[in-house]
Amino acid sequence: MSTARTSRTPLPGIGVRYDLTTRDYRHLSVVAHRDGSRTLSAYRNDDPDACALSVRLTGQEAEALVDVLKPTHHSPTLLSTTELGLVAERIELSGTSHWNGRLLGDTRMRTETGVSIVAVLRRAEAIPSPGPGFRLAGGDTLIVIGTREGVDAAAAILGRE
């Protein structure tokens, strides 16, 4: 019995696309838009490039769907960012980024956007709570937390080439 295969593709300026191929070789995708909405798409069996269904969900509708699919995922001790008006997001730093090789403090991220960079993922390593002296590198994925507007502004700053 084969298992589901997943992949993740950054969509600059849009968000991230997640693709799932089921054990029955059905193809599903979810585009997680920067505004918190999601587009869920299912593709035809006879033509995997032909979309059979596409549904745009608000952030709240996407959460309701997650609750139906996996109702035990909530725990009273987990931070529920939507209830607090916060979002957590991964932002990838491209190899051609203006910030490649520069110090995190040079971005003035917290001052300009109010977001917190809680970790940097580099290759197979996670660097928690990087300080202003941390040197960024192309391919780094920054885990940021803040308001939707702040995270969007951080993505714009980090996307500078």
Description:
The structure is a single chain. Helix content is 19%, strand content 35%. It contains 4 helices and 9 strands, in the order βββββααβαβββα. Strands 1-2-3-4-5 form a 5-stranded antiparallel β-sheet. β7 and β8 (125-128) form a beta hairpin. The protein is globular. The termini are far apart.
Question: Within the largest sheet, what's the order of strands?
Answer: 1-2-3-4-5
Number of E-state strands: 9
Coarse structural class: alpha+beta
Rounded to the nearest angstrom, the distance between the terminal CA atoms is: 45 Å
Mean pLDDT score, rounded?
85
Assign a percent range to the helix content. Answer: 10-25%
Task: Please summarize the sheet with the most strands.
Answer: 5 strands, antiparallel
Radius of gyration (CA) equals 18 Å
How would you sum up this structure in a few lines?
With 161 residues, the chain is an alpha+beta fold.
